[in-house]
Design a protein that fits this description.
Layout lengths: L2 E6 L4 H11 L7 E7 L6 E7 L2 H10 L6 E7 L14 E2 L5 E9 L2 H10 L10 H11 L4 H11 L2 E9 L6 E6 L4 E4 L4 E4 L11 E4 L5 E4 L4 E4 L11 E2 L15 H7 L1 H9 L19 H5 L3 E6 L1 H18 L3 E5 H4 L10 E7 L5 H12 L3 E6 L5 H5 L2 E4 L12 H21 L4 H11 L2 H10 L1 H11 L4 E6 L2 H17 L2 E6 L16 E6 L5 H12 L4 E7 L11 E5 L7 H19 L18
Parallel strand pairs: 15-16, 15-17, 17-18, 18-19, 20-21, 20-22, 22-23, 23-24
Antiparallel strand pairs: 1-4, 1-10, 2-3, 2-4, 5-6, 6-7, 7-8, 8-12, 9-10, 9-11, 11-14, 12-13
Length: 611
């Protein structure tokens, strides 16, 4: 997911742009660059490069540039391989217009052919360069008019920042499907893809909506629509501190965020689950008993880690409400013509609220008449604004690419939704409700207990970090958690890993087990415990080395395992919140042992905003 930052003010913008881009590194990138209207306003200086920001800084140190207006970019390649030429910013043919872009221009080939016929030449393989040339093509002295005409021609997703040499006091910005904010300062203003990029300088922001255009100068910010009509915006004041987006003394953001999970869970529960009574307070959700009685199905749609949370949600919602639930990968959902109508509720889950596949799937469901409910972490994100109902996870900023606290807080939200629906439908007794409620409230303390024993997990990681393959086994809810544990391991350690439903072993997958194969077996579900013990015996008899995870007191598992990790005893339905924590830690310590870039694993971005 590309990162954009821009500055207009009275200071040299280059250090500010670099600082903002560093704050956006978590989004994933393969190249970086800046464009600055030089100090005498005679040209636009552009410095860009493939690779990390440190390379860009070295280039700028060798050939310094200076100016009061500029834009910066970290690129995640979509069209054209990572290279200096394909890096942003891109410049128009006459050198008067520079742009940065996050998203994909879907009709760029058609536009490129048109521009080539008009005499334009291209220096890159990107879709973005088309936008720079198209603005120049339409420019006749009014840069805003040219920008609007360009927006009317391009199709796809975009967040755009534009410089024009003829207006050296201004940045233009617009968005569609990709996030963009405007930071409001004193004698200076900013644009950025995300709040951390500008939090050092201001806490007041405008969050741009679809097809809004920001005209940013040092003393003023105007927001207009594509008809150039003024748009009234409310200031969004950021309350969290910049330090919460930094490592806070930890070696990596990922371990910091793993350790923050008790607080994140408490925050997500705050005010939503009263100590007494027979209700759940879901701010942002206004689904009535009558609404629920009309439902014949619930879809949960998400990608990656959020999808795995959705699988747990399916188990929990079906168990407590008896409403059929189907879980679908967002990138598949819209292309299979899903059977969705006014009697369907579609729950979409996304940490960023900007995941493009999930966003488009939500829109598809909505177009078919479904009510939509979002579980997101980022306030004001696209999904949060467009769903009918929204429940925030309150996990706080998550910087590491590998999601941890977002997953556990998504689980908490799904439990709360299931309890809310069950109480309204009368499918749960007060006694069962109270038992689950009281146990949920104990989860932060129990997660803290797991975290205090992280050295045991670190020891196992140090013994098995050279494994070629690692397999995860589980049944029921344990299988859902096994999928997430396996994903965490493979995405940051690059070890081949798979999760299997343990009951499927004899249907083919046991052929993969050989002498020395490392297996992580999850056995936290009481009703399935004996069957899991049998499955562990099956892989042990083929030579596997087994690390098992079980609830405290189930010591029988020690007889069939090489190592055992115990989680505090809890209700089986809530065990995923505790079970996933040692799996996160195992993945983290394994990746550290292997010398991997834990927070920015190769080929991955924090939020996927292109299909």
């Amino acid at each position: 997911m590309c990162g954009i930052v821009g500055y207009v003010g009275t200071k040299n913008c280059v250090p500010i742009l670099l600082s903002g881009l560093k704050r956006l590194e978590y989004r994933g990138y393969d190249s970086a660059g800046v464009a600055v209207i030089d100090i005498d306003k005679s040209k636009i200086d552009i410095v860009k490069t493939k690779g990390r920001l440190t390379i860009l800084e070295e280039k700028l140190n060798q050939n310094p540039i200076e100016g009061f207006v500029g834009i910066g970019h970290t690129r995640w390649a979509t069209h054209g391989e990572p290279s200096d030429e394909n890096s942003h910013p891109h410049v128009s043919q006459n050198g008067k217009i520079a742009i940065v872009h996050n998203g994909i221009i879907e009709n760029y080939l058609k536009l490129k052919e048109f521009l080539i016929k008009k005499g334009y030449t291209f220096a890159s393989d990107t879709d973005t360069e088309v936008v720079a040339h198209l603005i120049e093509y339409y420019y006749d002295g009014d840069i805003l008019d040219a920008f609007i005409k360009t927006l009317e021609k391009i199709q796809g997703s975009y967040a755009l920042g534009v410089l024009c040499l003829d207006r050296p006091d201004m940045i233009l910005a617009a968005r569609k499907d990709s996030p963009l904010i405007v930071g409001l300062g004193q004698g200076e203003n900013f644009i950025a893809s995300d709040i951390p990029a500008i939090l050092e300088y201001t806490r007041d922001t405008y969050i741009l909506e679809e097809n809004e255009i920001a005209i940013v100068t040092k003393d003023k910010v105007e927001i207009v629509n594509t008809e150039k009509e003024p748009v009234k915006k409310e200031v969004f004041h950021v309350t969290w501190d910049v330090s919460s987006a930094e490592k806070g003394g930890y070696e990596h953001f990922m371990i910091k965020e793993i350790m923050e999970q008790p607080k994140a869970i408490r925050d997500t529960l705050t005010g939503r689950l009263p100590d007494s009574g027979f209700e759940v307070n879901l701010d942002g959700i206004n689904i009535t008993k009558e609404d629920l009685q009309k439902l014949n199905k619930i879809f949960i749609v998400a990608c990656g880690t959020a999808y795995h949370a959705g699988i747990v949600g399916k188990h929990v919602i079906e168990k407590l409400t008896r409403i059929p639930v189907e879980v679908d990968i967002a990138s598949e959902f819209r292309y299979r013509d899903p059977i969705v109508d006014k009697n369907t509720l579609t729950i979409v889950i996304s940490q960023s609220g900007e995941t493009i596949d999930t966003l488009v799937a939500m829109r598809e469901a909505k177009a078919k008449g479904s009510r939509t409910l979002g579980i997101v972490n980022v306030v004001g994100s696209s999904i949060a604004r467009e769903v009918d109902d929204c429940l925030y996870t309150w996990a706080g900023p998550e910087i590491a690419v590998a999601s941890t606290k977002a997953y556990t807080t998504q689980l908490i939200c799904l439990y709360l939704i299931a309890l809310d629906f069950a109480t309204k439908l009368g499918t749960i007794s007060y006694e069962e409700f109270a038992k689950i409620r009281d146990e949920i409230k104990k989860l932060p303390e129990k997660v803290e207990y797991v975290l205090t024993h992280k050295e045991n997990i670190q020891k196992y990681a140090s013994e098995h970090f050279n494994a070629k393959d690692i397999f995860y086994l589980g049944r029921g809810l344990d299988f859902a958690v096994a999928m997430e544990g396996s994903l965490k391991l493979k995405e940051i350690s690059y070890i081949h890993s798979e999760a299997y439903a343990a009951g499927e072993l004899k249907h083919g997958t046991i052929a993969l087990i050989e002498d020395g194969t490392f297996v992580i077996a999850l056995a936290t579900q009481k009703k399935l415990f004996e069957k899991m013990v049998s499955n562990i015996k099956e892989v042990k008899s083929r030579g596997a080395v087994v690390l098992s995870v079980a609830q405290e007191g189930n010591t029988e598992i020690e007889n069939v395992s090489d190592h055992v990790l115990y989680i505090p005893r809890t209700l089986d339905i809530l065990a995923p919140v505790l079970t996933v924590v040692p799996l996160q830690l195992f993945a983290y310590y394994t990746a550290v042992q292997r010398g991997c870039d834990v927070d920015k694993p190769r080929n991955l971005a924090k939020s996927v905003t292109v299909e």
